[in-house]
C-alpha cells in the first residue's frame, strides 16, 4: 500500500521503539498473535533497538514474561484508550522515536493506541510504520480478492450483528456466503436485506450446532470453491456433543486441495489446531473482524493512521 512504511524500512539501531501488539492470545504460545509479538520484539533486538516497549489489550502475565521487554499488558485500564484521546497519545509517545503497529487484529478500531498515537508521533516528525506480520497479513489477504475462480465466504460465531454486517458488505465479492453459528437464529433481529447468494444454516433443536442436512449442503458448496474465507466456527465446538458441524466443515475446507484457504479469528484458529488442520490452510489471520473489514474496505483505520504524505 502506498505511503505506508514497514519496520524493515526504518532505521532502528539505538532508537526507542513503541510497539502496539495483539496481546490477546487465545491460542497460547502456538497462536499467531503471540508469535507475531515475539517476532517483532526479536527483530527489533536483532537490529539494535535501544529500548523496546510493547503495549496491548488483555495481555496475560506469561505473555509479558515471554516477550522479555517492558510491557503494558492492558492499556484499556485507562478509559481514554477507547476515546482515541490525543492527550493520552502524547503521554504514550513521550520518549519514543518509532511507533510500530503490529496489532492487525485490532486495527479496525479507532482507539488511541491504533489511531491517535501514530498520528501524534508523525506530527512530531517521528517514524510510524507497520510490523512484519501486519505487512504479511495485507499481502495474503489481498490475494483473496485477486485470485480467479469461485469464491466462498463462511461466516459464523456469536457476534451476530457485526458478522452479519460484514457478510452483507462482502456478498458482492463472493459467489456464495454460508452462515452458521448464532446467525441463522438471530439475523431477523437486524435490519439487513439478505443477499441472494446467502445460504443460512438450519440448526439443531438445541441451537448449538448445524443440522445434518446443512452440513452436507455446506460441504457441497465447499467442494466447488477455488477461494475460501472462514470467519468463525459453526457451533459450540468445545462441547464434544456439539462439535460435528465445525469439525466436518473445517475438515472439508482443509481437504479442498485446489482452493486458496484463509481463516481468521481466535475461535477458528483454536478449532483447526484441535482437529490437526492448521497446516492445510494457506493463511491464518490474527484477526476476525479486522480480516473482514480489510477484505470489505481494502484498508483499516490503523493503516490510514500510519500513512505518510
From TrEMBL:
Indicate yes or no for the key word Iron-sulfur.
no
Q: What is its EC number?
A: 2.7.2.3
Q: Give the reactions, separated by semicolons, that this protein catalyses.
A: (2R)-3-phosphoglycerate + ATP = (2R)-3-phospho-glyceroyl phosphate + ADP
> GO biological process: any one?
glycolytic process
Protein origin, superkingdom = Bacteria
Tell me a Gene Ontology molecular-function term this record carries. Answer: ATP binding
Q: Could you tell me the keywords of this UniProt record?
A: ATP-binding, Kinase, Nucleotide-binding, Transferase
Zinc-finger among keywords? no
- Record-given protein name: phosphoglycerate kinase
List the source organism: Candidatus Amesbacteria bacterium GW2011_GWC1_47_15
